[in-house]
Amino acid sequence: MIVFLTMLHVLICIALIMVVLMQSAKGEGLAGAFGGSGITGAVFGGRGAATFLSKATTILAIAFFVSCLLLSFLSPSTGGGGGSSGIQKEAERRAGEGTPETNVPGTTPPQQPSTQQPATPPAEEGK
What we know:
- By secondary structure, the chain is an all-alpha fold.
- It has helices at about 1-20, 35-45, 45-75, 85-95.
- It contains four helices and no strands.
């Protein structure tokens, strides 16, 4: 089902690109590159080209948005963590450990307090 919808989406995209490029703008746009209104006028007629291409653009744009929505709702989520990113997973892992990041560039790690007892001073001799 996803493969069929993806292929349909690609076909809609290609058709939408072609229809938009065939339309002539005020400055003739890319339609002038194909001989101006000669080709589009010969195929669709004078005013009929604008009406047909406008309707085709509208229909293909709606089909494009619908296919985008369908593909986004039907696509399987990537990863097993409910769609969370790798950064979020790493932050959750470090929060669970309870240890802060110590190798951040430009900072020095905090000094850990010593758990050893200081040595007792040696007894003075001769007193």
